[in-house]
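HUMAN:
Sorry, I am quite new to this. Are you able to go through these amino acid letters and fold codes? The numbers rather puzzle me.
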Amino acid sequence: MIELAGGVNAVSDVQGYKPLSPEAAIAARPDLLMMMTQSVEAIGGEAAVLAEPNIAHTLAAQNKRLVVVDGLFGLGFGPRLAHAVHDLAVAFHPEQTFPALPTRPWTTSP
């Protein structure tokens, strides 16, 4: 999903979801963090995430570049894939202008 949206995974050598030590997070040098909504809420919100010791010293945290996505939307690879990739591309590249995608019944909340 990161690659589809024009991003580069700073920890591409890690398979699956694994916690990073503070040193590994800093060494990865992420300029942006992408986290699932549920994880951010469990930690206590965006400010709490950016203050975490394994995150606070990264360039991403210092620049407050945290992209929060719903897990099913961001990783579902279902009929909303094009919209999820579009939304991530917009978040990853705020300096770019992306045309809006057409609204589809499956992309709107009831």
In short: Strands lie at 33-36, 66-69. DSSP finds seven helices and two strands in the chain. The first strand starts at residue 33 and ends at 36.
